[in-house]
Amino acid sequence: xxxxxxxxxxxxxxxxxxxxxxxxxxxxxxxxxxxxxxxxxxxxxxxxxxxxxxxxxxxxxxxxxxxxxxxxxxxxxxxxxxxxxxxxxxxxxxxxxxxxxxxxxxxxxxxxxxxxxxxxxxxxxxxxxxxxxxxxxxxxxxxxxxxxxxxxxxxxxxxxxxxxxxxxxxxxxxxxxxxxxxxxxxxxxxxxxxxxxxxxxxxxxxxxxxxxxxxxxxxxxxxxxxxxxxxxxx
Length: 234
Known about the structure:
Blueprint: H1 2-27, H2 34-41, H3 45-52, H4 55-73, H5 83-100, H6 102-109, H7 119-137, H8 145-165, H9 174-187, H10 199-209, H11 218-232
Helix pairs in contact: 1-2, 1-3, 1-4, 3-4, 4-6, 4-7, 5-6, 5-7, 5-8, 5-9, 7-8, 7-10, 8-9, 10-11
């Protein structure tokens, strides 16, 4: 009996998300009302509240579902031997995702919620963090990982939203290329950071590979991480 109820809830959830995603893509966020979604999904409005809590919970679920489906379709996300080139690929995929799914992208990034980041935006941040970490491991990162990720996120997201807001016949996609290369120049060195004089580059690289060491206790690793983060920001 419990299994039947769970299967029914999953079925309702999938239908509701599919219906809401279709309304979002066709007519924008304002079209995703509880009444419209319940009618399109063939469920009662209370079912939506029971499964998603409120309209924002439903919108978050739609965004997470859409972004996950997009990632699953992109085999280009498989890491190559060049983490910097992988960052370029990730940037271009982000811009492409935004232009192909403007309402969904605006849902993820158009209304910042510092107290409750949408699940889809969290998933995107994890993908970005993985790109940045691989660059740090290669000794190519000029600044600490958190700062680098924040800069790529801010400029990449702003560029995508600006292009979305520009009529298609007036979009200049070379703006994205220029922004991408400016960010890469700001956070990445041409040679491994250890070849650059000064302690900051060495701290960034050592911080990236610190989890690989077994010579330190957990407390020692935590303390060293704190010191390296401080040095990297100098």
